[in-house]
Each structure stands twice: as C-alpha cells, then as structure tokens.
Design goal:
The chain is built from 14 helices and 23 strands. Helix 2 packs parallel to helix 10, helix 5 crosses helix 6 and helix 8 packs parallel to helix 10. Helices cover 30% and strands 25% of the residues. It has 2 domains: 158 residues, Lyase, Ornithine Decarboxylase, Chain A, domain 1; 279 residues, Alpha-Beta Barrel (TIM Barrel), CATH 3.20.20.10. The N and C termini lie far apart (54 Å). Bound molecules: pyridoxal-5'-phosphate (PLP). Pyridoxal-5'-phosphate binds next to loops.
Length: 457
C-alpha cells in the first residue's frame, strides 16, 4: 500500500525490496529478534523533537521560558532519560512519576506537579522533595497544601490552575480540559473560584503564589487556540495585582499536536463508533509547528500580560515530543475473509497494547516487509483476546496481508505504553534504536512477573 505519509516523515527508510528500516535495522529483523508486540523508540527523533520544542520556546519569548516534559505521556525511563538529556524539566502527576523523575536525576527544582487528586501523603512527598512548583487544582487542595507546608515550616511555590471554560476548535467538550462542563480540572473562572483562591491566599502563609496555569486539551493543531485561551486569563492579571500579587509565572500547559496523528472530529467519532465508518487518514493536514505554537503563545502573553515585566513562561508538552518517536510492531498471525462481509487481520497485540489512542485517533498502519504493496480493501485489525472489544481499527484500508507478516502501528509514543494493560497477555518489550545501535530498554513481561503480586496459599 502506498502510505499516505511517506515513511521518511518518521525517519524510516525503505530498502530496495520495500522493507522498512530504522537506522541500520530492518523492522522485520527487529520483530524476529525481539518478538512481537514490540515498541521501537526512535531515540534520535525523540531527542530532536524535545530539543526543537525547547529551542522554539526560548527563541520566541522575550522573557524567560522553560519546558517541562509531561511524563504521563510516556514515562518509560529510557524515553524520559533521552528527553532529559536535551535540557527540559519534568511535569509529574503521581508519586510514581515523582520518584522516577528523581531516580533519573532530574533536579527537584526542575520538577512541577499537576493532577486533580493530590493526596496529603503525595503533597508531603512533593514538599519534602522540594519540587519547584505545585499546581493547585482546587480550593480544598489549596488549604491542604498550606497546612502541610506550615506543619513542615516551609512556604511552597504554587500556581493556580484555571479552568477558563474554553473549547479549542474541533474538539468536543469531554476532551477539552479547559471546559467547565466537560472537565473537572482547575478552578472555575466563571464561578469566581480563582478570585476566591486569591482572597484566601492572604491568610495562607504556607503558600507562595507565583502565577497561573491553564491546560486546554490535547492534540491541538491550531496555534490560535492558545492565543484565544490566554485572552480569557487577561482579567486575572489585574485581579492578582489587586490582591498585591505579581504574576511571575504563566504555565500554558501542553496539548500541542503531533502532525502525524489526528484526532477524529465529534461527527467522525460518532460515525466510526456507531457504524464502523473510519474516515480517510488526513493526519498530515494542517498542524502548527513548535515555532508557530511558541510564537502564538508569546504574542498573546505580551499582549495580555505586558508591557511591563513579562512573566516566566512554562510549557508542558508531551505528545508533540514523544508521539512520532515510537512505533509498535505486531505480527498478523491469522487472516479471515468472509465473502461479502469483510476481512479481519488477527494480530498479537490489541486493545490492551494500543489502549485508548486508536479508539479516537488516526494512526498510520504500515506493512513492514512491503510498505508499497497497494491497499486492496478495508480490514478490521483485532488483537489476540477472545473479546469483541479487542480492536485496533475497524475498516481500515489495508493491503493484502498474509499470516506471519509484520505491521507497524505508527506514533505509539504518546499514551500507549503509559496506559497499557496485560489483559491475559504479557506487556510488550521495548527497544531503542539510535543509528547502528539497538538496545533492549524494557524486557517482555514474564509469566512470573504477571503473577508476582498475587498471593498463592
Ligand atoms: C496538565 C497537563 N499538562 C500537560 C499535558 C500533556 O499533554 P500533551 O501530551 O497533549 O502535550 C497534559 C495531558 O493530559 C496535562 O493534563
């Protein structure tokens, strides 16, 4: 099948016989050597994306700008380590991520903490670790953090997470994290919660207010959405000043799309889930570059928070760094054709491996040994579980595929490994390729590991 996007866009090359390769490594060879399902990290690309985002942020903004990689997107230690080598800090949302960030050598002053359900023990760990900032999601958390900080005799730097009730273009309410009806995140700007938090701060000596945080969703393709969301925060600048607080920091969250995948629109999603109508992949359509996102944010901040001293600008990108730097190899073990009905490709990884993304996003699927074989008809790609929901894609245009052939689900770097489950099968292995080098960075789960938490009497 002639891929809609050329494999070169992922840093892959096509060998003479049509086989895909990354660096010196043919993908079918990797599948044979390590078994499938297998995630392959393209380390060069990962580091290049991370560096490009940081450079774009620093170049565009006239004041100080810093980048915190969102660990939730892909917390595989080899991924986080490679990203850290390009200089950003880390945004964490759980105790696990905090411990891992520290273990990987990220200095605490380069760690910021998000999340809607920070418990007392987690907040205590954050205080004790001396992380740079806690981003407060609710009034109850504000009060809890103040009392924990005071009990430890310290003052914690905080940002207030604001829910501006803003929905980016083409996104539905449920995934727009800055929508007050769709998502519980943040302090409700329209209901006056931010003002209330600012008033409370005067009586909370354990907290040191630094500024605001906003995160409006994920997979956002249009830089203008950030500019429009930041306009909603303009009144906060004055409100903070009225309470005697300068806005020193402004965190615009993450959500910057990776150009290689595309979220289905609301109508497309409904048609796909209800009737199995998967629209054509138009992943490579219009999408902002890191430079365009950084410029749009810069212009909006200068306009709404200038002209005096500009706040430090914080970015929390996840998917635009990691998504296209990893792919998933699967072996198709069986093929079923039902005349007049359809075709099924039965692979050794399914819902538990791809998790949520293929449910609502386009990902290219390539045939590794013959990437140019023409698309013949639509096929449903399913996993190995004896369960009807174990589906990767329904009705995706695919070439003829024979049992034993290997397919690559592209862009598995964001929200695949972080959310995978085993569902009766072991978690996949992960390798990292960098030019001629290929190293195993996570072993395939063993049966003993799968039952290691169970108590056998
Ligand atoms: C607060 C916050 N920051 C950053 C991110 C990263 O988003 P993305 O991977 O879309 O860049 C998320 C994702 O959910 C988030 O909730």
């Amino acid at each position: 099948m002639k891929p809609i996007v050329h494999p070169g866009a992922w840093g892959l090359h096509v060998k003479a016989a049509g086989e895909l390769a990354l660096g010196n490594h043919g993908l079918t060879g990797l599948a044979r050597r390590y078994g499938t399902p297998l995630h392959v990290i393209n380390e060069k690309r990962l580091m290049k994306s991370a560096a490009a985002f940081r450079e774009a942020a620093e170049r565009s903004y006239p004041g100080p700008a810093s980048v915190y990689y969102a660990m939730k997107c892909n917390s595989v230690p080899a991924v986080v380590d490679a990203v850290l080598r390009t200089g950003p800090g880390l945004e964490v949302m759980t105790e696990y991520e905090l411990v891992l960030a520290i273990k990987l050598g990220c200095p605490p002053e380069k760690i910021i903490v998000n999340g809607p359900c920070k418990t007392g023990p987690f907040l205590e760990k954050c205080i004790d670790a001396r992380v740079r900032l806690v981003i407060v999601d609710s009034i109850s958390e504000l009060l809890m953090l103040d009392s924990l900080s005071r009990a430890r005799g310290c003052r914690r730097g905080v940002l207030l997470r604001v829910n501006p009730d803003f929905i980016p273009r083409g996104m539905n309410r449920g995934t727009a994290t800055g929508s007050r009806r769709g998502c519980a995140f943040g302090l409700d700007l329209k209901a006056g919660e931010v003002g209330r938090a600012l008033s409370l701060l005067a009586g909370l000596p354990g907290l040191n207010f630094q500024g605001f945080h906003v995160h409006i969703g994920t997979g956002i393709r249009y830089p203008g959405d950030y500019a429009r969301a930041l306009r909603c925060l303009e009144p906060l600048h004055q409100a903070a000043s009225a309470h005697g607080y300068p806005v020193r920091l402004l965190d615009v969250g993450g959500g910057f799309a990776s150009p290689m995948t595309r979220e289905l629109g609301t109508r497309e999603f409904l048609l796909y889930q209800a009737f199995g109508r998967l629209p054509e992949n138009r992943a490579a359509q219009e999408c902002g570059t890191p430079g365009a996102f950084a410029s749009a944010v810069t212009d909006a901040v200068v306009k709404h928070f200038g002209p005096g001293e500009l706040p430090e600008l914080l970015f929390e990108p996840g998917r635009c760094i990691a998504s296209a730097a990893q792919f998933l190899l699967l072996t198709v073990h069986h093929v079923k054709e039902r005349p007049g009905v359809g075709r099924w490709l039965i692979a050794d990884g399914g819902l538990s491996t791809v998790t949520l993304p293929t449910f609502y996003e386009h990902h290219e699927v390539l045939l590794c040994n013959d990437v140019c074989r023409p698309g013949s008809s639509r096929a449903t790609i399913i996993g190995p579980a004896c369960f009807a929901g174990d589906v990767i894609y329904r009705n995706k245009l695919m070439p003829e595929v024979h049992p034993g052939e290997v397919i690559a689900v592209m862009d598995s770097g964001a929200y695949f490994t972080a959310m995978e489950s085993s569902f009766g099968f072991p978690h996949p292995a992960i390798v990292a390729v960098n030019g001629a080098t290929c190293r195993l960075v996570r072993t395939r789960e063993t049966f003993d590991e799968m039952v290691s938490r169970d108590v056998f009497d």
